[in-house]
Every structure is written in C-alpha cells, then in structure tokens.
Design a protein that fits this description.
6 helices
Length: about 170
C-alpha cells in the first residue's frame, strides 16, 4: 500500500499572483495533496491581513481539488513535520532566487533529512511577477489584471481606493 505524498507550498501570499497559482496547479499534478501554507511572521507588515490572505487563497484555488489552505508560525520544516509532509515546493523566478532557496533547502535537510525540497521554475511569462511588484503597481493605480486573479484585483482596489484601476 503506497503512502500519500503530501507537499507544502508556503509563502506570505501578500497577495497571491498568477505565478503562485501556476506553481500550485503544477504541484497539484505532481503530488497527491498540496497544502498552501500562509506563513505568519511577526516582523513583517503585510498589506493584507492574515484572514484576508487566507480568503483570497480560498477564492483563487477553489478549483484545485487536492489543494488545501492552512497557516503556520515558526519554521516551515517544523510545520511540515507536524502535518506529515514529505516535500516542500519552492518556486524559482531567477538565478538570484536559487542561492537563497538552496541555502534554506540545505538547512531544512539538515534539520530533517526525510523532507525534500523540490524547486519548480516559474513559467517564462511569470518570471518577473512578484507580490511586491503587484502591490507597487496597484498602489499607483496601475492595472495588475495580467499578474493577479480578479479577486485579488478587487481586493487591491478596495485597499488603495480610487488609485487602483481595474
């Protein structure tokens, strides 16, 4: 009898972008179940509250049947141990991401060699998209509909008021 392969894709998702969604959808075809885990970091000041980020994730991933939304505090590797995940999924946009992500993957493997990190490169057309870019464009009234789902665009308009265009 085979054991279900559970993966965790973690991030702040402030807000979720089409790049995030692409990685979630691709990971969902590779693993039996994918937990999209929102990290809660006391030193960060996100634009969207914790509950808003969870709600946006629920809205935008509802059509991925083997994905579920959760949150964690502290070390991701400890969260993975608690939920029984055997894989951490990380997206790579550029070579600069790789050095940082590899360092974290090595530390995680040192703390728990039974949990592997899998790197998925972003699709070429999402390689430059980041949540911080989406926030910056939206804060100045720019159109982010090519970078983020409609629910996120609506939420950004609500945050930034008239400055954020459809």
């Amino acid at each position: 009898m085979s054991k279900e392969l559970l993966a965790v894709y973690a991030g702040s998702f402030d807000p979720i972008t089409f790049g995030h969604l692409d990685l979630i959808q691709r990971a969902s075809t590779l693993f039996d179940q994918v937990i999209i885990a929102v990290g809660r970091h006391p030193t960060k000041s996100p634009l969207f509250s914790y509950s808003e980020r969870l709600e946006l994730l629920r809205k935008t991933t509802s059509e991925v049947p083997n994905a579920r939304i959760d949150s964690f505090e502290g070390l991701l590797i400890q969260y993975c141990q608690r939920v029984g995940a055997r894989v951490i999924v990380r997206g790579l946009r550029a070579a600069t991401d790789f050095e940082y992500e590899l360092q974290i993957a090595h530390a995680n493997a040192d703390m728990n060699p039974g949990i592997d990190t899998v790197f998925l490169p972003t699709r070429t057309h999402y390689g430059f998209v980041s949540a911080s870019l989406v926030r910056e464009i939206a804060s100045h009234g720019g159109d982010v509909s090519h970078y983020a789902p409609a629910a996120v665009c609506d939420a950004l308009r609500a945050k930034f008021g008239a400055a954020a265009k459809p």
